[in-house]
Amino acid sequence: MGISGTVTNTGDGVVITATAPHERLDFFVTAIQNDAPPLARITAVESRWHDSSLAAPGFFILPSVAGSAAANTAIPPDIAICDDCLNEFLDPDDDRFHYPFINCTNCGPRFTIVETIPYDRPKTSMKVFPMCSRCEIEYHDPGNRRFHAQPNACPSCGPAVSLHERSGEALTKTHPVAAAATLLAEGKILAIRGLGGFHLVVDGSSDTAVALLRARKGRPDKPLAVMVRDLAAAKEICHLNSTEQKILTSPERPIVLLVKKDQSCLTAGLAPGIEEIGVMLPYTPLHHLLFQMPDCPKVLVMTSGNVSGSPICTANEDALARLAAIADNFLLHNREIVTRVDDSVVKVACDNTLILRRARGFVPSPVMIDWPLPKILGCGAGLKNTFSLGRGKSVFTSQHIGDLDSLPIYEFYLESIDHLKSVLQLEPEAVACDLHPDYLSSRFAAELDLPLYKVQHHHAHAVAVMAEHGLSGPILAVVLDGTGLGEDGTIWGGEILRAELTGFQRLGHLSHLLLPGGDAANTEPWRMGLSALFQTFGPEGLAADRLPPALAQLDQTKVATIASMMQGGFQSPPSSSCGRLFDAVASLLGLRQKISYEGQAAMELEALAKKAKTVSWLTQLSPKSHTVLSPFLYETNGKWEISSPEFVKMVRDGIARAESKEIIALRFHSLLISSITRLIEILAHQTGIRHVVLSGGCMQNSLLLEGLFHTLKQIRLQVFTGNMLPVNDGAVSFGQTIIGGLRHVSRHPHESNQRPG
Fold it and tell me: Which residues of 347-374 are buried (b: 16+ CB within 10 A; e: fewer)?
C-alpha cells in the first residue's frame, strides 16, 4: 500500500505507526479488520493522528515489548493443523513430509506452550529448539506462511517422537509411530503425549482392549471419546448433520457428541446405555501420522491420560510414573507442555451449538461483554470447575479444571490461576465465589484478603447466559441442575428466577424431595426412588407390597432405615434439585440404582425416552391448558412450585399399567417441559418479561432443551441458552465474575443479592 512506519507486539496490543496519504491510511485501517489472517481476533481498533514525521521511508517490524501495566493482548488458543500444512505433511517431496510437529502462523500450539506474553519464541517452551538456517529464513520472511510462527520447526531443528516401554526404556525402532500403530492393533494400551497433555489410547473396535482400559483406569461406565481419520470415517460410525460436520472440521477440532449408528465397527463398551458418543478428528500432525500407518485401527479411543482424582499428565516423567499401571507403552515427544488443557466437548441441539467443556481450541480467548468490570477473579463451583479473570469488557474463562474434590486437582486449580494471572499481568482487586462455604474454590476466595462477593449458584448460571447474549435484564431464568446452595440454606436445583445482573428473585421451583443420606443420594439413585415414593405417598408408599418391581428387590432393612431417616428428618435435607428428580424416575423405572459418574442415570433416562420419540413429538408439545396442568402447579408462601409428586404418580401409574419404560420416560420429559412452560407463561404475563434464559447441567439434555425452546417460542417468548460457554457449572465462574465485578463497581453489598418479594 506504499505505507511507511513500524509495527510492534506489546502487552497492551499491536501498535502500528503509519505514514501515507489520508485516503490510503483509511483503506489500510479497513483492510486490517476485513482482511486479517485466519486466526486473528481483533477486539478493537483505536486510531489517532500524530504530527511527527518518520525518520526513514519503509515499513519495519520492531522487537516486541512488554506492556507497562496490564497485558491486554490475548494469547491465541491451540489450533488444529491447517490445510496448507497438512498438504505439505502428506507430500513425500516436501522437507516436512510426515514431520509430527509441522505448523505455521495459521495453526499449531499456542496457549499450551506460552510462558508469558508478548507471544514470542523466547517466551515459549520452543525456546530450547534453536531454528536452523532454513527455518530462520522462513520466520523472518513477511511473504512466507511461517513468518513469525513461534513454534516453527523442521526435522533438523525441532522436537522429535520416541516410543518407550512402561519402564521408560526407549524402544529403538526405526519408526516409533509405525510401531505404536502396530501395538494398538495388537490390543495394547498406549499413553500418547499430545498438545495439552496425555491421552490413553486403544483400538475403539476391540471389546477386549476397551474393557482392559476401563478395568485399569477404574472407569466402568463413563463414555469414552474416539478419534477417526477423517469426516468419511466419522460418517461410517455416526449420524451427522451439516452443523456437526462443520464443527468437527473447524480449526478448534473439539470432541462432538454424535448419535451412534446401529451397525458400525464400534464396540458397545464405548458408551453403554447412551445413544451418543464423542467423536473428534485428528488435530495434531502426530495424530495424522498415526492414522497414516498401515496397522493403525480405524477408530481410536482417546481419553484423558490421568488417574482418578488427578489432572491429565503433561510431563514425560510424571506420565511414566503415574500411568505405568494403565499403559503398556508410551509414545513421547520432547516439546514441553507449559499449560495442561483437555479436549473441548461440543454438541448440537435445536440448531444451537452448545459447548459442554470449553478447553483446547477455545481457551484462553476472552468472552467480550457489554459492561466494564474491575480486575476481578471468579473462583467457580465445586464440580466442573473453571475460574475467570475479568478486566474492562473482557472475561478470560479458564480451561476445564475438573471437580475440586482432590488435592491434585486443587493444586492444578491454583497453578492455573497463578499462570493466567501472570500471563495477563492481572492482579485482582476483588474476588467472587459461590455461596457454598465448603467448596474449595470458596475457601480459596475467602483466604485472599480481597473484597469478597458471594454469588448464589443459580444466579451465576443465569447471568452467564445473559452476559453472553448482552442481556441486562430483567429476564426469566429456568436453571435446572443437580446442586446449588440457596439463599434459604436449602439445596436448590430446579429454579425459576427473575434475574438482573446484580440481583435476583426466586419466583418458583420444583417442590422438595428429601436427600436421604445427604451426599450419598447423589450417587445412589435408589435413595431418590424411595424419597420420591415417601414424598408422594407417605411412609406407606415404602411398604414392601407397594414398591415398584425395581425397588422391591432392595433389602427391606435398608428401606426401613431410609424411611426412618426421612420420617425423623435425620440426614435428609430437602432439595428442589432437578437432577435428583431425574435420578428418582430412573430408579423407579429400574434403569440405574447406583451411578459411577455424574449424570449417568439422567443420561440413560434421556436415551430411553428418545427411543419413544416420534417425528411429531415437538408438535405434540404445544403448551397444555392450565386445567390439564393444574395438579402440577401451585403457589405456596408467595412462590410457585412445580409438584414433583405428580411426576412420581405418573411414573408409578405407568408401571402399574405395564406401559413401556420408553413411553413413561418420554412422558416424564414432556410433562416437565409443559409444566415449566405453563409456569413461565404465567410469570411472563404477571411481570411483562419476554426474555427467557435456559441454563444448568440438566439443559445438556437435548429433549429438555429442544422441548423448552419449542414451547416457549410458541408463546412468543425470546429464548436464550449458553453457546460460547457451557450451560453446566463450567460457566459459573463467568457469571460470578460479572455479578461480583458489577457489585464491586457499585459497592453493592453481597448480603443484598436477593431482593424481597
Answer: bbbbebbbbbbbbbbbbbbbbbbeeebb
- Assess whether pLDDT exceeds 90 at residue 14: no
Cβ pair 217, 199 in contact under 8 A: no
Cα–Cα distance for residue pair 484/576, rounded to 1 Å: 10
The CA distance from 189 to 731, in Å, is 34
Return the SS3 of 552.
helix
Q: Which residue has the cell 450419598?
A: 520
pLDDT at 181: 97
190 Cβ neighbours under 8 A, 6+ residues apart: 180, 183, 184, 200, 201, 202, 327, 328, 329, 330, 331
| pLDDT (tens digit per residue) in 732-752 | 999 999 999 999 998 855 443
| Dist CA 161 CA 182 (whole Å) | 16
Burial letters 544-565, b for 16+ CB under 10 A, else e? eeebbebbeebeeeebeebbeb
| Spatial distance between the Cα atoms of 425 and 551, rounded to a whole number of angstroms | 57
Q: Of 304, 302, 338, 334, nearest to 317 (Cα)?
A: 334
Neighbours of 749 (CB within 10 A): 9
Architecture of domain 161-333: Alpha-Beta Complex (3.90)
Least reliable range by pLDDT among 49-53, 189-193, 433-437: 49-53
Domain with CATH 3.90.870.40 in the chain: 161-333
Tens of pLDDT, residue by residue over 365-412, are: 999 999 999 999 999 999 999 999 999 999 999 999 999 999 999 999
Domain limits, CATH 3.30.420.360, in the chain: 359-471+726-752
Phi-psi region of 571 (alpha: psi -120 to 50; beta: other; left: phi over 0): left
Cell numbers for 597, please give them.
459418574
Query: Which CATH number, 3.30.420.360, 1.10.10.10, 3.40.50.720, 3.40.30.10, labels domain 359-471+726-752?
Result: 3.30.420.360
In angstroms and rounded to an integer, the radius of gyration of the C-alpha atoms of the chain is 27
Secondary structure tally for the chain: helices H, strands E: 22, 27
